[in-house]
Fold:
Amino acid sequence: MSGTITIGVDLTSDQSLDCDVCIVGSGAGGSVLAAGLAQAGLDVVVLEAGPYLTRRDFTLHEEQAYPDLYQDRMGRATSDLAISILQGRSVGGSTTVNWTTCFRTPQRILDHWGEHHGIALSADELAPHFEAVEQRLSIHPWPEALANENNRKLLVGARALGWEAAPLRRNVKGCANSGYCGLGCPVNGKQAMHITYLPDAIVAGARLFADVQVDRLEVQAGRVAVVHARVLDRFSGRATERTLTLRPKVTVLSGGAVNNPALLLRSGLDGGGRVGRRTFLHPVVGIGGRYEQPVNPFYGAPQSIGSHQFIDRGPDKVGFFFESAPMQPTLMSTTSAIFGALHDELMGQLPHIGVMISLHVDGLLPGDEGGTVSLRSDGRIAIDYPITPPLIEAMKESHKTLAQLTFAAGAVEVFSLHTDPLRMTTQDELSRLDDAAYGGHEHAIFSAHQMGGCSMGGDPATSVVDLEHRFRGVDGLFVVDGSVLPTALGVNPSETIYGLSRRATAFVQAAV
Structure:
């Protein structure tokens, strides 16, 4: 029997429901899990704080998409405002707005988890789960011939320097190659959760509620007995007076690496002080290049070429990897910290601008605990992330390397995203980057990958969930999404989350 989709405006009075499994969040973790559990015959309810939007709602207008589809109307940031955090907030979560890049979990990361976090996960164990999601989501390499000019610059530059670079795998089918993935796909080419696993779940009987934010988990006799949620106004995002109360047999948190810890803390569940700690962001910096020929960085598959040439820089240095970033006008204008005439000049040159980014792999060095998610005195979420000396060293090195790469790609001018940008027209000027300042508020820093905060591990003294995603100390409570990752991945995290969530289906099912 088919399930239902209910949006906030349809909830005209308080409601109370019973179910086998309540899943909080409809992104990469919650949707894959919901489909598996519903297809196994369980009564599944999925709660999503964001709106239910489909391709008809995706107008490709930045001024509409960012408030509609991103956390905090795309204003989420660390407490000191040093790092901007791009994170989805709609049915489908970040899969609705991500740039489609898919990697299996690297072997070096699995080895690190086994050695340092007691997680005995092998590539062979994960392979069937990856194979299943790759088939369902049409994950395959994007043809090199279809790479847009923005990504081709990365490939050309890397090959000129003798560095590794290759086409990326994307979860797309019938892709129009528009380049506006971050604003929601208007042709359903991106195989995001709201058109794949969530429909699978609903066809199998799951019930989805959008515009419903979970405020608190009520624990009785050592297990989650009640899930308390409020209905939100679709347009303002503010709470209405209407409530939704669930009494599930099992509760699963799939709200992401920021929202999961916040919900647990609001519920008085701090996991012995570990909830919210070890939060990782893959901190991102970028370098821009101006080319004689048009690049049009706003068109074409956003990410189709990547390089992991510098992913392993030794045991005492932070590694990084390269991708190209799409640059729609609003995104470009807010990426740069410049103002006035310089800003006007930059935006006028946008068709000739390409931006390459470096993502830094946090959480692997000894003592690297990443950041912390906590609650302010007024209940709002706080994200604190120290930019440590090893990370500063890596950002400095990646700036220089990106600048070298951009020149090798044929740029006639290379510029940094410092608050006072360095502009260089020859490779002889690269040494100027040695004297530049690095760290918070010195240059633009972003995060599109949030991981950790509810770390998985084999040691109860250092982890929040066990190897089967059970929250330690509370029966019938699971965490299934990127918040369980004990370190950053060094690759885009979506496929790892898909695979781990499919693996977790059996554990959650057995607990009902």
